[in-house]
Write a structure and sequence with these properties.
The protein has about 130 residues and is mainly α. It has one domain. The protein is built from seven helices and no strands. Helix 2 runs antiparallel to helix 3 (about 45-65). The protein is globular.
């Protein structure tokens, strides 16, 4: 299977980066603008700052602009979100409904190490 799909690994990574970034930006849009059924938070609040990180960071990740930095910050935000909002509700992510925060945290941590990859602004400008 590796010989067949392995040659497309760069494209699959780009699709993963784009989809994850756009979905993360949607979470930010919920907090910042009340979009997608969300509740708008005050920008100077903890939720407002989280929304800003999610919206701007998600867009940066999706287009592949400074992906390592944006993904590292997003990963940290998800770790904080997990330990502040979910961990007090129970010992396991499946119990405390923190699976999404954990998945985003480790996905973005991987992206911060891997970088922008192909189909990105950084790659097009010679930085990726």
């Amino acid at each position: 299977m590796d010989r067949v799909l392995g040659r497309y690994a760069g494209v699959f990574y780009a699709v993963l980066r784009i989809v994850a970034g756009l979905l993360f930006a949607c979470h930010g849009a919920q907090k910042l603008f009340g979009a997608f059924g969300g509740n708008q938070a005050a920008l100077a609040s903890l939720h407002g700052v989280a929304g800003l990180v999610e919206f701007v960071g998600g867009l940066m990740i999706a287009i592949g602009f400074l992906t390592s930095l944006a993904a590292f910050i997003a990963s940290g935000e998800m770790a904080v979100a997990y330990f502040m909002a979910h961990a007090p509700q129970g010992p396991l992510p499946i119990v405390n409904q923190g699976e999404l925060a954990v998945v985003y945290c480790f996905l973005f941590l991987y992206m911060s190490a891997r970088g922008s990859g192909p189909l990105s602004v950084d790659h097009a400008s010679g930085r990726g």
